[in-house]
């Protein structure tokens, strides 16, 4: 409403605003709410809330598309992104009833057109609300409305201030003033100053006294990338791959490559040399890696080749660093960006190449909220930006192999290792024919080590030759089950359909009530003491069954590091989440391994990826083949990938290596195929099988999961969902059935699977069906989620 006391100039200004309003200028805002729509808002009544508003500028700028605005939404105040300017409201709400924007937070768009397009694509493809897609894309501080240049606040002493101007008895103030003085006329960034021990409160005090000022230093334009080290001479296959990628880059067109190279074949060298051309053209390169544990090592490799501004993006960063990284990518300051999954959603000023390393890796699929697959998003972004995308792997996923067959990916093969290194041959040990080695405990009792004599012999031989051994066991803890021998009781998680894992460091600790001795659920982290008697029958005959990495280490210790039984003593290095929890523990482990002395490494899948252990010449898999028997149809694929990755750790130095697989099912056809013919023919056979069964990638899947307090309610909601499927839909509908672990964390899960011959069909049904399903009466108190291209069920 017009105040009676407006000044004339403000009055004129107001007329302008009215004129503008009469053009029906409204904005549509995407808000972080679980609703599949955007919201209309009018312009703010308070003119100063508009961007670029200044009293002598009569042309009022609308908040830009892609900028942040603060709005009222119900009783909440939310921050959203402007996605459109419109002339008329979509809704039937009369214009004067539309709420105005409270505040514009950015004078300019913070999301460029391509990132907005990406958001729209993600929303469509994954059937996820646009506002929530944007909430996933934006770093927390951006979502909270913080200014983007918040971070590069600098402080300096005002030019005219001398020591004479600052005479004080306040010692601390003087000390802080002197600290800043050391930085000279330009001062330093707040980050740096705080690190040096300056305190924010004092900076503020000195500012209030008119002695120092804060300012924003524009980031220097990055200098051009320089080669810090000469590239290696490529072998023929590497040359072909680099040439193909560089040609795609130069012709400015999208090409997806599958760089299919056996472990240790020099894929990274191909990335590096392809990158060189892209970086020299002044463009940015994004490298996605599966795991944060790998990033320091990977970073070192890229940093030693290029003198460039390298930015690391991973889930361990704090919010400030994340925003800084985001800004660096957006402004073009970052030249090489190495990141885990979510880096594929960052804004880039001028991206020229995307590399997805270990593209088959399961960690590229996000398993909650927006369930995207980073390799798929990478391909989309490459297509959008007209740049090459390289998916590198030794064990391509069946999806990617099918894309090669369809001509949608160009395959480049690397079939040899450079130099003398040869891929280690794989050999089976039939654990049914050989008894496993028995060991005698201090008290005389015998126990089973779970290792055949053949395996133990090979380990000893390797150690005596001065080499290292890697034993892979994908199960941490001491044992997966605690069993009562008298009545069959097992320690189960009260909140999940799962056994509790036994944790203690060795047998001697088993009945200690110590912090090292406990039962734990690996799904919900529930913990309990280890009972001394069976809670059901009172028997003391409780036994840890099966083997985790701790128990395996203990058994190996008894054989290879016990002065009573072994002449030479070899260190056993256990590598799993329990032993690498502390910050510096990886460092220590690396140092011990890199010292190069004979040792046995025992590890979970943490050791499978990327690591380079040059002295490992023997890799043992005592029971990795279990996955071939699992109910999940993807399990053989994933098991084989993991086995090949682990096997790839053998013989990476100058010495050749070998791989021993101890198995109870030596005539399993899939296992034999993998061992005899290698991963590719194994994968081809699986692909054929999937085709016959109509399973992905020969069909397209959407998995609907329903979570609630009872299984009955979740199943009923899914039944109701089936009932509202459009008639004549042509999809295969499987379920509802209980989810694989239907009770988890005291919540129940049921699921429903939709399979379609072609993708269009699936999306067509989902477009009409999914939103109504969310509003089904029976779904009211349940959590329904949709997973497009699920990786397992
Ligand atoms: P991948 O990424 O395929 O597992 P890497 O890139 O780690 O393989 O290469 C394995 C080893 O081979 C590295 O030590 C690397 O420096 C070396 N290498 C790669 N390409 C060449 C080459 N053309 N000539 C000599 N050594 C090479
Ligand atoms: Zn019992
Ligand atoms: Zn649990």
UniProtKB/TrEMBL annotation:
Cofactor or coenzyme needed: Zn(2+)
An example Gene Ontology biological process: DNA replication, synthesis of primer
Residues binding Zn(2+) 1, per UniProt: 484, 487, 534, 537
Lipid biosynthesis found in the keyword field: no
Top enzyme class: isomerase
Record's keyword terms, sorted: ATP-binding, DNA replication, DNA-binding, Helicase, Hydrolase, Isomerase, Metal-binding, Nucleotide-binding, Primosome, Zinc
Catalytic activity, EC: 5.6.2.4
Highest taxon listed in the record's lineage: Bacteria
CDD domains associated with the record: DEXHc_priA (cd17929)
Cofactor-binding details, from the entry: Binds 2 zinc ions per subunit.
Residues annotated as domain Helicase ATP-binding: 248-414
Catalysed reactions, as listed in the record: Couples ATP hydrolysis with the unwinding of duplex DNA by translocating in the 3'-5' direction; ATP + H2O = ADP + phosphate + H(+)
Record HAMAP family: PriA
Subunit structure of this chain's protein: Component of the replication restart primosome.
Family recorded in the similarity comment: Belongs to the helicase family. PriA subfamily.
Functional note: Initiates the restart of stalled replication forks, which reloads the replicative helicase on sites other than the origin of replication. Recognizes and binds to abandoned replication forks and remodels them to uncover a helicase loading site. Promotes assembly of the primosome at these replication forks.
Name of this protein: Replication restart protein PriA
Gene responsible for this protein: priA
